[in-house]
Each structure stands twice: as C-alpha cells, then as structure tokens.
Amino acid sequence: MSGHNKWSTIKRKKGANDAKRSKIFSKIIKEITIAVKEGGADPEGNPRLRLAIANAKGASMPKENISRAINKGKDKDASNFVEYTYEGYLPHGIAIYVECTSDNQQRTVSNIRAIFNRYNGNLGTNGSLSFLFDRKGVFTIPLGDIDQEEFELEMIDAGAEDITVEDNFISVTTAMEDFGSLMKKLEELGIEPENAELRRIPKDTIVLGLEESKKIMRVIEAFEEDDDVQNVFHNMELTDELVDAL
Which residue ranges of the chain lie beneath pLDDT 50? Predict the structure, then answer.
C-alpha cells in the first residue's frame, strides 16, 4: 500500500473519534463556505461546491450542517476565509507542507511558526518545497458491491494512474489535470466517494526509525489540531511498523 493510502487509513480510523469528527466537519464547512463565495450556491454550476458536499456526505455530515454552511457562504457579512500555505522542514530533514484556511492571517502564521519553533523545525518561504511534491487527485471509495475489474477499466479510461484496494476501500490516484474527468466518471457510474481531494504526494520519502517517526507524527498532529489547518503533507515514509504503532 502506497504511503498516501496508509495515511488515508490512519485518518479514517482516527475520524471515528468524536473529537476528530468535529475537526473534520469544521474543515468541510470552511471548504463549503469558500466554494459558495467563489462560485455560487448551486452545486450543479459549481464543481468545487459539488465536491465539498460529496465529501461532507462521505464524512456522514448531517444535511442541516451542509445547508448552514451553504447559507454562511451566501452571507456577505460572514467571515471571509482565505487559503494560505506554509512550507518548512522538521528534524531529520522531513519536509512538511501545511495548507490553511483562515479569516486572520496574522493569527495563522503566528500559530504555524510557533509549532515549527516548538519542535525544532524551520519555516521556509513559499515555493521552496514545491519540487519535492506532485499534486495528485486521490479518491477514496467504499468497495461495497463494486465489480472491481469493470470499475478499474472505467477508472483507467477516465485517467486513473494508480488503483489499490485496502480494508474494503478502493483508492484511485490521478494526475491533477484529470481530477475533474474522474470525478465526472464516478458521478456517471452513480458511485459516491467517501473522500475526494487534491493532495501533495512526495516524489521520494525518507525512512526514519520508529521512535523518530513517532516524534514526527506528534508534530504533524500538532499542526492538524490547529483550527486554521486544513491539510498537512510530508515526505516521511509511513512504514508498516509505524502504522501498527499508531
């Protein structure tokens, strides 16, 4: 199982925790709000909103929460969220890429810098790590009663680069430019992914010992716990030993 699939499995299991689920809902609400402000409240004419709603359903978010988020996006007096990214290095040369959505950049950068400093990391300049990651679309789909052979052929035709099955979930990876066509193909097939998103996949990974890896994971969790953080990407190898320990 590739590294980003292992990470998906870990996050899915953590998401069963009520506190983590609340954090997931908060992220999705921000995404819905931004999508509405950018492209309007009609999902049919707003692909970003359609994707955010699909992710909300995949996370079992109640319909009333989705409706409130859409209405919040339509409210001109509501907080204006802006997307920011921060890049840097953690101990042992681990590169980390943090995506944020915030209505207060000063607060966000202060919090991000504080986490880097607390764990002996270094906040870099934007764009300094872009060469280490590829932007890919990743779809996580419940296996259910899907005919795997037929499904894989449909996905390959739509631009899938990699298809794996793990723990009754199918993970489909595609180039960023094929993300929309693959999402459209899933809609045509009547298949709702549990999650669909653009991720930063490391071109190469760094293998650390178990104890060093666990320390890095604690830093990653510190970033993820910040209310302004939407996603955290890194280039540390998620070994089987580490996954078992987590």
Answer: 1
